[in-house]
Design brief:
Layout: E1 8-13, E2 18-22, E3 35-39, E4 47-48, E5 51-55, E6 61-66, E7 72-81, E8 88-93, E9 96-99, E10 104-107, E11 112-116, H1 119-124, E12 129-131, H2 133-143, H3 154-168, H4 200-216, H5 221-234, H6 240-252, E13 270-271, E14 284-285
Antiparallel strand pairs: 1-2, 1-7, 2-12, 3-7, 4-9, 5-6, 5-8, 8-11, 9-10, 13-14
Helix pairs in contact: 2-3, 2-5, 4-5, 4-6
Length: 297
């Protein structure tokens, strides 16, 4: 008998595009092959009115729902995701998001994705899954692998998160914490958040704010995201100045000092190594660069 697993999808965004955070809870059993519900989200500021869909490994498509003012939507999957359906890719488009770079509300004009490796991954992040610029880049890396179940495995999906963390936020993925990038971030939808929390969710929210602020002074969110997506997918090196600039802007974000981000090492960019079915192969470091200047929130 299949037990229902419930999650809640919560979307947040930054000045880039829809990011997301699947948040919710469920009763997990490793022997339970099916997930019948989940939540969706986008990270970098709450996204309101985003339409989210899912696609399974066997190319089953479904409508996940539309996010509310808090960036949340409950998703029902019938008859449920089985083991062969993973990895599952979530895509969210449309709506508006809170931009931390200038505290404005902006239209989300590009899709944002997240890849869920397997049911156990959901349990590992406490039932809280995010969709944000980092998950978009991890999904781009995963999606660049040759098609087929032999290549696009759960291990490869997890390793994709680890590679993006290595390039941009190594402190977030240290000690086997690759899936920290997939966890939901603390929602940011007000001009002066003061309680992001000194935990993974709060730290991720701070990095996402840094991403938004960096993008605002380097061509705009959509341009920065598109450029990084292309670099990740094609094996082109990400300049160290980009990763360091995001970290510098995260450090300057008003509540940044309270989340512990300032004490974490900066990423140095480099080339994202394409994962194999068993994991990743190790990466190439980026060239030296200077961090971005601090900005006002």
């Amino acid at each position: 008998m299949i037990n229902s697993k419930k999650m809640r999808l919560t979307m947040f965004a930054a000045s880039m595009v829809a990011a997301g955070a699947l948040t919710g809870c469920f009763n997990d059993k490793s022997s339970d092959p099916s997930t019948t519900g989940f939540g969706l989200g986008a990270a970098k500021g709450a996204i309101n009115g985003a339409t989210c869909n899912y696609k399974t490994a066997v190319n089953t498509n479904g409508f996940a729902g539309t996010t509310d003012a808090n960036g949340e939507v409950q998703v029902a999957v019938t008859p449920g995701f089985g083991a062969n359906d993973y990895p599952v890719v979530i895509t969210c488009v449309g709506g508006t998001y809170f931009d931390e770079s200038d505290n404005s509300t902006q239209p989300q004009t590009e899709p944002m994705r997240s890849v869920i490796p397997d049911a156990q991954s959901i349990a590992e992040v406490g039932g809280k899954i995010g969709v944000n610029p980092f998950t978009e880049l991890a999904t781009a890396l995963f999606d660049s692998l040759p098609a087929g179940a032999a290549n696009r495995t759960a291990a490869a999906a997890k390793a994709s998160y680890g590679e993006i963390g290595r390039l941009f936020a190594p402190g977030m993925v240290a000690n086997g914490g690759a899936l920290n990038l997939m966890q939901a971030s603390t929602p940011v939808n007000t001009a002066n958040p003061t309680n992001l929390g000194n935990n993974v969710a709060g730290q991720l929210a701070t990095y996402l704010a840094g991403f938004a602020k960096y993008a605002a002074t380097n061509g705009g969110s959509m341009a920065v995201l598109a450029d990084l997506r292309t670099k990740i997918a094609t094996g082109t090196a990400v300049p160290a100045s980009v990763a360091q600039g995001i970290k510098t802007q995260a450090n300057s974000y008003t509540p940044g000092a309270t989340t512990g981000v300032t004490a974490q090492p900066s990423g140095n960019g480099g080339t994202a190594q394409k994962p194999t079915s068993g994991g990743t192969t190790g990466g190439t470091g980026g060239t030296g660069g200077t961090g971005g200047s601090g900005g006002q929130v």
